[in-house]
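Per reviewer request, we include the raw input and output of the structure prediction for the construct analysed in the revised manuscript.
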Amino acid sequence: MNWDDIRYFNAVFQCQNISHAAKLLSVSPQTVARKITALESKLKSVLFIRHPRGYNPTADAMVLAIEVEKAEQVLTALQNNFVSKSNKFSGIVRIATPELIATEILLPAFKPFLNEYPDLKIELVTGINTIGIAKGEADIALRLIQPEQGDLTIKQVGTMSSALYSLTESKTDLKNSKLIGWDSHIDLPSSRWLKRITGREPDLKLNSLATQKAAIQAGLGIGILPCFIAKDLNRIKQPYLFEEPLWLVTHASAKASPRIRLVYDEISEIMQRNQLNLHQKF
């Protein structure tokens, strides 16, 4: 006897009608009748008296119903105990993310979430170097480059727009203006895009977006910035924006602990709430 047997028995015992039980179980009446006959054969007992109006439970069915109720109580207690324990989220969750997404989007939105789960400890790893999930260097990563498929959960949580910016609103000559960009050893899609539209390497090479923004604000040249951090600068008109998908990565579902999955889902919601800000249009 298994839980499927119990499910069919319970439905017929409660409804005392094959058609009603079938509707409750979302199966055909023939399936219900077949299951009950098989159960009776397995138990070597007659559980129901069949008649045109329905199925009347026998004395053996009454005894079985009492045992089924006890089993259901045990199952409910186990389920409630598991839910109670799984709701007590605690421990460290290590998140790798680009620095400006951390400072401008994630951290300002985290307070209500961390108030709700005070035993969670968040560690943020920021920078441009790829942090390995499979290597155990982080539990969750927010990336601009989609990881290769593997034993991972990968979800696109938005698109980030970037554009060329300068300090002033005067007409900008791309051929003669000083260029601000990434250090040569940093190979990112945005740096390749800057070279493609200007035909040359940056004059001032830096290793973070924060320093590139500071250089543009100081009037040292023009460069590419995510639109959501450059609202105080002048956007240089181009035929199109540079757009990058944002990927949220963690362990495969079977390996992710409840607390990691909880934080993963929260980051996903935060990023989606900020999508209009991240994906700006001309």
